[in-house]
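Why predict the complex rather than its parts? Because the way molecules touch one another can change local conformation, and only a joint prediction can capture that. The input here totals 302 residues.
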Amino acid sequence: MTDVTLLNKQFGIPGVAQIVTGNGGLPAVQVTNTNDGTTGTIYLHGGHVTAWKPAENQEVLWCSKNSWWEPDKPIRGGVPICFPWFGAREGDATAPSHGFARILPWELESVNSQSGEVTVVVSLKSSTATRKYWPDKFLLRHRVTFGPELVMQLELTNLGNTPMIVEEAQHTYFHVGDVRQIRITGLENVKYISSVENVRDKSHAHAIVIEAETDRRYVNTTGTIVLEDRSLNRRITLKRHNSKTAVVWNPWIAKAKAMPDFSDEEWPEMMCIETANVRELPAKVGPQETHVMASRISVQSM
Ligand code: BG6
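Output of the joint prediction:
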């Protein structure tokens, strides 16, 4: 059991960032006061950012009201960290979907406030729990800065003597007014693969609109992605660093119904756009090297 009082003594910054007992009794760092009134939350479970609300804006991230908040289950919403595999693990139907990082407790390393922004660093080190699935020795850090922008750096250090090849994603759930009214730009003329549409190497010249279940992996793309949300009158900009895959996902009606941790009527409120290195383009990290993949998110009014 994590002692929240002890963590708060060690890392809390009065009036700025507190370590709290969050949903399901899981410990979280709650940022309550940056210079401009931005707030945010990161759970130690999964190193998982669940909230970010820049001043004078609505919440940018989405979380399901049916989410599990349990030590061995993933949180539905916010920014799950998928690592070291994405989706189902090939050849092992019992392995957790999207890897083990999002269902393990991470350690709180530091909380710092500078120039009105708050940076929280959490980490996951290889252990008997990770070696059960994955042989590599590693240190995975999530360095998250809550400010006028949300900056999330996923830093993987290979502590072993052989190269590591892993899949990784910041599986961001964005809160939208109505997914049927959004447009996503920045992925025009990029090849994508979709098992839902049963296509490979397809592309389009126009902005993405969501009219059905959408589950696409855009390959070999590093550009900025913009989500235009007319119903909330805002534009969310996602800049990716060291990410060559972008996943775009909305479960639509039937899939939402089939998920126990996702309420039936919630699918219009969310859209996932994921900063990733997966499948044909995994991350490769040499012995003793550190690889950093990052997302920088900002919001503009329309
Ligand atoms: C997306 C995948 O990244 O995550 C989808 O592309 C998947 O195929 C979705 O359904 C949710 O996965 P999970 O394991 O959180 O239910």
